[in-house]
From TrEMBL:
InterPro entries: SAM-dependent_MTases_sf, Thiopurine_S-MeTrfase, TPMT
Name under which the protein is recorded: thiopurine S-methyltransferase
Enzyme class: transferase
Source organism (scientific name): Balaeniceps rex
GO molecular function: thiopurine S-methyltransferase activity
Keywords: Cytoplasm, Methyltransferase, S-adenosyl-L-methionine, Transferase
Native organism taxonomy: Eukaryota, Metazoa, Chordata, Craniata, Vertebrata
Length: 196
């Protein structure tokens, strides 16, 4: 496969916002992802009360599922609509406040305090703002990031991880010459070079 066929493809923030506005969100799964259920023990590694990060979270139902197990969930998403739909669909009361370190960003936090979702670009986040995480559930983030931004994304994710973190990553395998993405094709060799 010619993995360079997608390398210059760029999806803008506006295009992602438009997908949410138009309801063109085929990437959203109404049921929890079977791979998270299958590999949950790998993510948790016998630990309780973890801080788990959801990059480009959308309105992922797994956020509530993990929070209900006693974990603290933090997500980031550019679409405020997606975040508000998450809280509405789960009947979760929340409060909203600005994020002083990031111009125009908002933080939506469940009143129970165990789900905190940032509405901003993922690249505006840092460990000084969101802290570090024991686990990451990356279902659709790396494959949604523009290919030219992968190194930047992986570097950021590494800075957000605690030393004994678990990182669950779901990618898709297909012929990149037949689909322009997203989701983008990420070769296993590239995942190894990005995350070591």
């Amino acid at each position: 496969a010619d993995i360079w066929s997608q390398k210059d493809r760029v999806v803008t923030e506006e295009e992602w916002l438009q997908k949410w506005e138009m309801g063109n969100i085929g990437f959203h799964k109404k049921q929890g992802h079977p791979l998270l259920q299958k590999y949950l023990d790998v993510l948790l590694n016998g630990r309780n009360g973890l801080r788990i990060f959801f990059p480009l979270c959308g309105k992922a139902v797994e956020m509530k599922w993990l929070a209900d197990m006693g974990h603290s969930v933090v997500g980031v998403e550019v679409s405020e609509q997606a975040l508000k739909e998450f809280f509405a669909e789960h009947n979760l009361p929340y409060c909203e406040e600005p994020v002083p370190e990031i111009s125009g960003a908002k933080k939506l936090q469940s009143t129970s305090g165990n789900i905190c979702l940032y509405c901003c670009s993922i690249y505006d986040l840092s460990s000084s703002i969101v802290g570090k995480f024991d686990g990451v559930w990356d279902r659709g983030a790396l494959v949604a990031v523009n290919p030219c931004d992968r190194q930047r994304y992986a570097s950021l994710m590494i800075t957000l991880m605690e030393k004994n973190s678990s990182y669950l990553l779901v990618t898709v395998s297909y012929d990149p010459n037949k689909h322009k993405g997203p989701p983008f094709y990420v070769a296993e060799s590239e995942i190894k070079s990005l995350f070591g």
